[in-house]
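Notes from hallway chat w/ T.B., transcribed later so I don't forget. T.B. wanted the structure written out for a chain they're using in a teaching module, and asked if we could keep both sequence and structure tokens in one place. Agreed to drop them here.
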Amino acid sequence: RFLWLGPVALGLWRIVGVVATALFAPLLARAAFNLPLDAPWLPAGLRRVLPRPGAAAAAGPLRFAAPTDRAAAQAYPSTELLNELRTRLTQPPPCRNSCAEIISAEVRADGDRLEVELAASALADVAVALPQAGDLWQLERVEVDGRAAPFALRQGDGSAWLPLTPGAHRLRLSGRLANAETVQLNFPQPPRTLSVSTRGWDAAGASNGRLLAGSLELIRRRSAGSATSELAPSEFAPFVKVTRHFSFDLDWGVRSVVERIAPRAAPLQVSIPLAPGESLLTSELEVRDGAVTLALPRGAASATWSSLLPRTETLSLTLPADAQRTEEWVFAVGPEWNVQFEGFPPSLPPNEGGQWSFHFVPRAGETLNLTIRRPAPAPGQTLAIDSVVHRSEFGRRSVNGSLQLDYRSTQAGRHTLTLPAEARVTEVRVNGEPVPIRPDNGQLPLSVLAGRNLVEIQWTMPRGAGFITRPDAIDLGIPASNVRTGIVLPQHRWPLLARGPGVGTTILYWGEIVVFLALAWALSRWRRSPLRLHEWLLLGLGLSTLSWPVFATVAAWLIVMRWREGWDHAGARRWVFHTVQVVLAVFSVVALSSLVFSGVRYGLLATPDMSLDAPGGSFGAADGFAWFLDRSGTTLPRPAVVSVPMWVYRVLMFAWAAWIAVALGRWSPSGPFSPPRHWPLYA
């Protein structure tokens, strides 16, 4: 059994249909034109091959009997195959955006004719954008390699595209120009080189064989007898305003801005002289004979370029008398330069905020001369110490010292600090980071960093606090500002005096003692004083380091008791007498309790209060002594604190407590509560 499957079967049936149509055609011809099939005028060979009516009639149904294999026709080609074909056909070439390039362009304008010849090179089957001027240039002929191009595609935006095959080609575009004063020829793909040949036209936008701004402007020349009643804007000579911004800083430079004044919208080309020694940083502009050629296309209001200037002591700027421009010169001078201007005075700057700048608006023919120098350096140190904190914490047998230096330096280098030879440095930090350096025979070398930095040093010394306690001797090597010095005594020392340069902690106790001595002498001179001078002194000195309010309470109680002894209460009413007695009793309890608990008890156990007063903002007021000096020499100040061991204070307070106990026993028998004389019984 033979079985055939596939689309080929459809092709075989189509062949049968063609044969059947050929056999059926003579019958149709005979019926239509009434022609005999066996006409004698037909050749004998043709009469033999023509079908008989019966055979043709039998073959007719075969024409329409061929099956239509729709299933096979629809199954091939498949959708996936069609999509793959579409992807391959629409895939961009490997060169993508660089498949075509215009090597050169020749523009020839003659009267109302414009011809552009392009040399193009293509790497694949691509389309290149053709130069166009809108409705002002009507293309009449497009040739590729001397033959007329089959077609050029135009887009909705007016751009024209021409297909090219791989290889080098020569394109020629020619057409008629409209009756316009100016024609702007745009090059969507700028050529590498450009040559322009015109007759009756002026060209702008090209310089030194290059297109400056992507378009070429053609300006029609007017003859002497063709003047019109109103001149077109493009007929005026170009006039621009040039603003030069000079910057004298670490690097010298100038930024130039050219603004159009006339014509208002037409393209123009001007030549702007450069400043002496000016070097352009913009490669798109052409420099010829010390001037930059600048083209402003239609509608462009301004253009800018940047340049470098060499450092020189003198600079001269001149605005020529016949210049077709106005200029404005702006100078921004850094702090490291001193500039003197000669020629004409500056004008007020339009903006007064920010960095000060000098503005000059020259008139035609004026010259401005500049003399630029660095300010003479003033002699001085490259290292300055802005703040010093020197703190010493004393113990029984050692002292812990710390030093903080906040300095500024204009350059890096080395600086040596001098510490005591016995000092053992435990830590050195620079800007918070530990540095592994140690002193050699008291000489501590530091690496000075440029800028502002903070140095912290800590050390220990094998000495404790003595009768006169001073911080360690430190030599910074240079003067310092804002010096703070602190001394912290141990708990077993009793400070008596503190002296130091500048503003520092003051012991107010001795001033209070002077006032107390005057008050004790005055009380002892009072006729009704309950105590003699030495008793007042002993009572006040014992309570002076504890609490002056306790002394005032006890003194008031003694004076009241002396008054009570001399009070004649015989004529007083009973309720008045009892009220006075009760008040005196309560007052006595308060005074004696204050004396015993606040005076005797705390005098034997607590630390004496010497009334320390530290300056505002100084450290150490709570736990020690502090001094501030706004300016010091190379050696840091060494204030002194005079102190004695705390056991001396304890011994004195113990002796005072014994005396006060004896004194209270002596004062009590003469008190106002001794019966029966001072507390009579009323009936």
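Follow-up for T.B.: The first strand starts at residue 100 and ends at 110. Might be a good example for the class.
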